[in-house]
From TrEMBL:
Its cofactor is Mn(2+). Residues 18-153 form the Galactosyltransferase N-terminal domain. GO terms for biological process: carbohydrate metabolic process; glycosphingolipid biosynthetic process. The lineage of its organism: Eukaryota, Metazoa, Ecdysozoa, Arthropoda, Hexapoda. Pathway: Protein modification; protein glycosylation. The chain holds residues 69 to 353 of 354 of the full protein. It is a single-pass type II membrane protein. It comes from Sipha flava (yellow sugarcane aphid). Belongs to the glycosyltransferase 7 family. It comes from the Eukaryota. This is Beta-1,4-N-acetylgalactosaminyltransferase. Residues 157-233 form the Galactosyltransferase C-terminal domain. Its main location: membrane. The keyword Amino-acid biosynthesis does not apply. Catalyzes the transfer of galactose onto proteins or lipids.
Amino acid sequence: YNNIQTKQTNEKQPLTPCPQTPPDLNGTMRLLVPAQETLEEVAQQLSWLRLLEGGHQEPLDCRARYKIAIIVPYRDRLSNLCTFLLNMHPFLTKQQLDYSIFIVEQFDDGLFNRAMLMNVGFNEALKLRDFDCFFFHDVDLIPENDRNIYSCPDQPRHMSVAIDKFNYRLPYVDLFGGVIGMSRNHFQLVNGFSNMFWGWGGEDDDMASRVKAHDLNITRYTPNVARYHMLTHAKQKANPKRYEKLYSGRKRFKTDGLNNLEYRVKSLKQLPLFTYLLVDLTGRR
Ligand code: BGN
């Protein structure tokens, strides 16, 4: 009898769902700067957050509505990565989200393939947990407004509408780069990103075409909310073949993407601030 009593009183109260709009948001975000640009130092600065293994967090006092994966394609940007993590973890925590951050690093030193790294992130993340939606996120973009909510969108959402580098103006209406959010189902429906964009540019425009070709709509928050600061880094060399790939892309939506993805995972680690994937993409060329 005694045993049963203790068990009952120790049982956790079922949590109520988190509110649609998290409390305590105030429309600003102060940019945090790492004291030193090392992951150890950033982890130290974030110790108050009590993050779980692999850069995972979930609200303590309510039940999150969705499981969210943040997928960040990465190579050789440690300084940006430190600032990104230092700012994103408190930001996402404040929004009462259940999320995990994945850093997907390209191992080989061939041309960078941002889109393919994001496909890999999607694929590998789903092996670990049944995430509901995905935010594909450049490492150099830091949100400036905490009301820019990273919750699952009904339609594909372009998040980085107003970036300081572009004077907070959308460069063109169909832009779908920087930070986007998509449900797992929609990402699968469009067969993910193309794997054929090696080097800078065009892969995001190809994704915009995929979204439209499947009768989905790109949605956006208002520019005063969807504001971002861009961190500085060396400029990438644009891919001269991007026009050609983009214009012929439509023919390949069904055959080029998640369903023909080939790569080798060199490393998969649950680190304190993120889940780390190191992948070799060279098999494909
Ligand atoms: C565009 C790039 C995008 C990039 C944006 C913003 C191309 C394709 C040729 C039509 N598109 O010009 O990939 O995100 O600029 O920098 O280069």
